[in-house]
Amino acid sequence: MANTIVHNGTVRVPAPYNEPAKDYAPGSPEAVRLYAELDRVKGEVRELPHVIGGERQFDGEKVDLVAPHNHAHVLGRIPKADEKQVQAAIDAALAAQESWANTPWYERVAIFLRAADLVSGKYRDELLATTMLHQSKTYHQAEIDACELADFFRYNAHNAAQIYEQQPTSPAGQWNVMDHRGLEGFVLAITPFNFTAIAGNLPSTPAMMGNTVVWKPSEKSALSSDVVMRLFEEAGLPAGVINLVHGSGRAISEQAMAHEQFAGLNFTGSSAVFRGLWKTAGVNIEKYRAYPRLVGETGGKNAIVAHSSADPEALLVAMVRGAYEYQGQKCTAASRVYIPRSLWEAGLETKLVETVKGLKVGDITEHETYVGAVIDEVSADRLADALERAKALASHTLLAGGTVRKDKGWFVDPTLFVTTDPSAFTMKEEFFGPLLTVHVYDDAEVEWYDLLKLVDGTSEYALGGSIFARDHAAITEALSVLRNTAGMMYVNDKPTGALMGVQSFGGGRASGTNDKTGSPLALQRWVSGRYIKENMSPDLDWTYPYMGTSGN
Ligand SMILES: NC(=O)c1ccc[n+]([C@@H]2O[C@H](COP(=O)([O-])OP(=O)(O)OC[C@H]3O[C@@H](n4cnc5c(N)ncnc54)[C@H](O)[C@@H]3O)[C@@H](O)[C@H]2O)c1
Ligand SMILES: N[C@@H](CCC=O)C(=O)O
User: Fold this and answer.
1) By the 8 A CB rule, do 393 and 421 touch?
2) Which residues line ligand 2 (CB under 6 A)?
3) Residue ranges of the Aldehyde dehydrogenase domain (predicted)?
4) Range of the domain at 461
5) 325 and 266 inside one domain
6) Whole-model pTM above 0.95?
7) 182 alpha carbon to ligand 1 midpoint, in Å?
8) Which of 491, 523, 547 is the last residue of a domain?
9) Rounded to the nearest whole angstrom, what is the distance from the C-alpha of residue 464 to the centroid of ligand 2?
10) Atom of ligand 2 nearest to the CA of 488
11) Is position 538 within any domain?
């Protein structure tokens, strides 16, 4: 690399920090800048390319990218990769591998630290505008997403340094070294629509550790993924290290995962898709040069469990923010709640229903909007079907919402059900939309322990969760009984809003491989260790002591 710096000493990566979020108060300089950027992005129809080996390729059948809250508005187009383009992306990743793997780790890390500053500076407005318009996020939700992208880069840089510092001990006469190699082959990153930060993080995490990558972003967030790719390049990422191909996830993954040099999958998305990808790896296992690393962070059915000692006001805030922010399209969104009758009937029900009915649904560029549109028509239809199924159950009472409107945008009104059946489908399945179901338990009858066992056993997922109580013994018991129910458990807080370096996210059971995105555990998956022992004074005698002596 042209800008190689030779460091003759210990390299210290700058201390990481969480990017402070701006609030875009109307009339503030940052809001004025962002309004202008929103106008610019709205006024364009962007033709987005694949980026393969540093070259932009526009060929292929086109897919329109629209604004979910105004689906007549076409924001851009992406091409669908054909087999040749996928092959070219794999070839480019393999061609870049040796020189990237041999690039000193601190230079690789420096590129992503530059990328972090481009996120928080030059590209912030464009990231927000594209995320708002194409993923239907409010100012606040788009801002925390952009901040999280910068956080990923800064914390990963810090965590990478910690991994490289891990070295074995060297007894007298030896020098032992751990060589933290990247994987042989290429990594496939397949990213979800719901976080621009996750889309940027999944290809860059393996890249930081010396791997080269084929990246298939979601077509539902392609506008912001294109910005991320441009800022990687501007930060100095060499051509071929990350190769972006748009198109069918199924077709791209089938081709890439049948390749001899497929070295790993970094996936975030639904559990069903991840299970399918795992099977594809199984079918191809004999083709591979090495066993691939399969990393997947997937769905959730995150519970809020309230004890009779809970603060009802804090509980209400957690339910509203946890379930309805970003239309419930967060893997960690609250979607089932267990509330004691004593609290529910003491005013919580009335206040909750009033609050949910008052949430403004609509265009995310209006500051008062709390809930935008769901991501696409498939999602709106899936939610409409779930709402009708729940309404038809005698065990369910609709307290708010329950309507889907598709004329201008794909709007699902914030919906609240209360159910007498704690094992209903609404308490088990992930819907990925603004749908919350409450089960009111009789705290005069039901033991806390029995309720916790019910929560633990109801859904196949184990991603996030919240416990609300002021009685500390109740918290301790819940943390124990729910130990395997969630990979991130919050006490007296909503289950969303993980902050890098503070709570990295990831869950077990059907929720994924629990590699804790943004933590050292996640980086470790992209390293293949090699121990090197150098003997400083090699043996010159092959015999054992006392050989040649007889008897004891
Ligand atoms: N656990 C986490 O950290 C986390 C974070 C964000 C999102 N999620 C989960 O992601 C899901 C929502 O995101 P989504 O709708 O983008 O998920 P999705 O599974 O539909 O899509 C994810 C990615 O996989 C691709 N894909 C779809 N079908 C495929 C197939 N058959 N083969 C290969 N690739 C395929 C998509 O194009 C996209 O790029 C939810 O289940 C949510 O809980 C989990
Ligand atoms: N950043 C999210 C997790 C990502 C899931 O979609 C959170 O709010 O905890």
Assistant:
1) yes
2) 194-195, 330-332, 496-498, 505
3) 60-526
4) 302-491
5) no
6) yes
7) 25
8) 491
9) 9
10) 9
11) no
pLDDT of 5 higher than 70: no
CATH number at residue 204: 3.40.605.10
- What whole-number distance in Å separates Cα of residue 156 and Cα of residue 501? 9
- Which residue is associated with the tokens 């470790």? 524
Predicted ipTM? 0.99
User: Does residue 129 sit in the same domain as residue 258?
Assistant: yes
Please, what is the Cα angle at 145 between 143 and 268, to 5 degrees?
165
Shared domain for 86 and 44, answered yes or no, is yes
Other C-beta atoms closer than 10 Å to the C-beta of 102 total: 9
55-104: pLDDT as tens digits: 999 999 999 999 999 999 999 999 999 999 999 999 999 999 999 999 99
Residues 281 and 374 both lie in one domain: no
Residue 445 lies in a domain: yes
For 286-345, how does the pLDDT look when each residue is reduced to its tens digit (9 = 90+)? 999 999 999 999 999 999 999 999 999 999 999 999 999 999 999 999 999 999 999 999
360, 373: one domain: yes
pLDDT (tens digit per residue) in 366-402 = 999 999 999 999 999 999 999 999 999 999 999 999 9
CATH number, domain of 477, equals 3.40.309.10
Report the nearest-CA residue for atom 5 of ligand 2. 331
19 is catalytic: no
Q: What's the gap in Å between 298 CA and the centre of ligand 1?
A: 7
CA-nearest residue, atom 5 of ligand 1: 331
Residue 460 located in a structural domain: yes
Q: Which of 143, 148, 219, 297 is catalytic?
A: 297
* Same-domain pairing of 43 and 165: yes
Per the prediction, the chain carries an average pLDDT of 97
Question: Is the CB of residue 496 below 6 angstroms from any atom belonging to ligand 1?
Answer: no
Helix, strand or coil, per DSSP, at residue 170: coil
Q: What is the DSSP letter of 432?
A: -
485 in the same domain as 415:
yes
**pLDDT of 425-478, one tens digit each?**
999 999 999 999 999 999 999 999 999 999 999 999 999 999 999 999 999 999
Give the mutation target among 273, 325, 382, 435 for probing the ligand 1 site: most ligand atoms within 8 A of CB.
273
* Inside any domain, residue 401: yes
Q: Is 381 exposed, middle or buried (0-12, 13-18, 19+ CB in 10 A)?
A: middle
Rounded Cα–Cα distance for residues 476 and 240 (Å): 50
Q: CA-CA distance, 437 to 323, in Å (whole number)?
A: 10
